[in-house]
Amino acid sequence: EPEVTQTPSHQVTQMGQEVILRCVPISNHLYFYWYRQILGQKVEFLVSFYNNEISEKSEIFDDQFSVERPDGSNFTLKIRSTKLEDSAMYFCASSRQPGQVYGYTFGSGTRLTVV
Amino acid sequence: SQQGEEDPQALSIQEGENATMNCSYKTSINNLQWYRQNSGRGLVHLILIRSNEREKHSGRLRVTLDTSKKSSSLLITASRAADTASYFCATDSGANNLFFGTGTRLTVIP
């Protein structure tokens, strides 16, 4: 069964450093998303991406965050200057159609620890 | 906020029993989805029920939706130890993003 692949599975970074989280969505999917889950809290929507541009973003997704689909297969989330509160599990998801049709396929997540 | 709330927060049952988890939400929705998360792992899509549907089945899963009460339930029949996980409801208003609930931690005792 096709999977959404995320790398790395765990990343530790110093506060203030830039991090790039990588995702390989399912190959025939057109819609891409990032969510995050702070330990013990709800899964929160960050951003959705379609046709090479952001279609929706939440209040969490401020100027420190950016997304990119650099080469037609990868989908990345960049955090420019990490803060302690950015520590969370970050999930990438994709869907062939808008997620309200059949749902979303999530990756296994990248656990980001900011120290 | 249209974020869902599940109850109970934790549920412990014996293998073979049925498990019922409930979800309530606040605003109108396009659909409601249920996901499973094994400890420290990703989210697995289980089932999607649209706002004009009242009940849906998938294998041992049965989901109901009552839009008048803004609530949904997930029933897992004949539970197995492998069903041990956290279960989340997530609502979609049609804006192509999901609002997740707080989750129910299900433990199935062999």
Provide a brief overview of the structure.
The complex is a heterodimer of chains A (115) and B (110). Chain A is mostly beta strands and 115 residues long. Chain A has one helix at residues 99-102, and strands at 5-7, 10-13, 19-24, 31-37, 43-50, 53-57, 65-68, 75-79, 88-95, 105-106, 110-114.
Tell me the number of structural domains of chain B.
Answer: 1
Average pLDDT over all residues of chain A:
92
Tally of helical runs of chain B: 0
Low-confidence stretches of chain B: none
Estimated share of beta-strand residues of chain B = over 45%
CATH superfamily of chain A: Immunoglobulins
Main pleated-sheet profile of chain A: 7 strands, mixed
Tally of strands of chain A: 11
Query: By CATH's scheme, which homologous superfamily of chain B applies?
Result: Immunoglobulins
CATH architecture of chain B: Sandwich
Broad shape of chain B = globular
Based on secondary structure, the structural category of chain B is: mainly beta
Q: Please write the string of helix (H) and strand (E) elements of chain A.
A: EEEEEEEEEHEE
Count of individual beta strands of chain B: 11
Text of the CATH class of chain B: Mainly Beta
User: What do we call the CATH topology of chain A?
Assistant: Immunoglobulin-like
Total DSSP helices of chain A? 1
Largest interface: A-B, 27 and 25 residues
What proportion of the residues of chain B is helical, as a percent range?
under 10%
